[in-house]
């Protein structure tokens, strides 16, 4: 494998998305709109032939990826490989908490009481560190723990001996994970104060050495 095209789709809308709750390793079902999001993404990608598909092992990601694969006209991949490596950030004690309240607890002691202010002054990575610090159990992932896990996901793709140069790979992941990838791989190219749309498509180029972003949140 020299390089592969990775099409990253954020899962369809869930009830926790509507309720403004942190949803990392916890899970809530897709809404009717969430099912539409998955169908819309499937229609966007229907004419692409995929050599492999991956998703986080949450049901919201699994349902989204299966919808997309069912709509794919090439039909070359029937089922995705589910893995915890591509899960959303683990929010620990704050799983299921109102997002604004959780980020206030994490950021206010540092003078940045909202997620946007944490990101503007520090980074998305630092937001992870602040949340773990605020977690009374310290179970939430900090930035290093998060990337150790996510990098294993990229290594899983790289280790797929069935992939060839310029193959297309489908990957279903999550909102904060997309933001985290854009911060690390796209520099300051995109406004990361706004979460990517449910069902949006981002294209990345994965090589044996690095990851480059071709476009984001389409």
TrEMBL record:
GO BP annotations, alphabetical order: negative regulation of glycolytic process; regulation of pentose-phosphate shunt
Residues annotated as the enzyme's active site: 11 (tele-phosphohistidine intermediate), 88 (proton donor/acceptor)
SUPFAM superfamilies linked: Phosphoglycerate mutase-like (SSF53254)
Binding residues annotated for substrate, in chain numbering: 10-17, 60, 88-91
Keywords: Hydrolase
Top-level taxon of origin: Bacteria
Keyword check for Hydrolase: yes
CDD domains: HP_PGM_like (cd07067)
Gene Ontology terms for molecular function: fructose-2,6-bisphosphate 2-phosphatase activity
Alphabetical list of InterPro entries matching this protein: His_Pase_superF_clade-1, His_PPase_superfam, Phosphoglycerate_Mutase
GO cellular component: cytosol
One Pfam family here: His_Phos_1
Protein name: Phosphoglycerate mutase
Natural source organism: Paucilactobacillus hokkaidonensis JCM 18461
């Amino acid at each position: 494998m020299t390089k592969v095209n990775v099409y990253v789709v954020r899962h369809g809308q869930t009830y926790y998305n509507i309720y403004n709750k942190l949803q990392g390793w916890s899970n809530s079902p897709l809404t009717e709109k969430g099912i539409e999001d998955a169908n819309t993404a499937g229609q966007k990608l229907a004419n692409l032939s995929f050599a492999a598909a991956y998703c986080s092992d949450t049901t919201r990601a699994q349902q989204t990826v299966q919808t997309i694969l069912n709509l794919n006209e090439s039909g070359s991949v029937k089922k995705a490989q589910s893995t915890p490596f591509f899960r959303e950030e683990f929010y620990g004690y704050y799983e299921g908490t109102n997002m604004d309240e959780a980020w206030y607890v994490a950021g206010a002691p540092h003078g940045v009481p909202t997620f946007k202010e944490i990101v503007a002054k520090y980074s998305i990575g630092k937001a992870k560190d602040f949340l773990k610090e605020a977690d009374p159990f310290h179970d939430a992932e900090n930035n290093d723990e998060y990337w150790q896990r996510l990098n294993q996901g990229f290594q899983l793709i790289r280790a797929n001996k069935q992939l060839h140069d310029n193959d297309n790979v489908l990957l279903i992941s999550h909102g904060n994970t997309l933001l985290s990838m854009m911060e690390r791989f796209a520099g300051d190219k995109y406004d990361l104060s706004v979460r990517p749309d449910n069902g949006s498509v981002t294209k990345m180029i994965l090589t044996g050495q690095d990851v480059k972003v071709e476009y984001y949140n389409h």
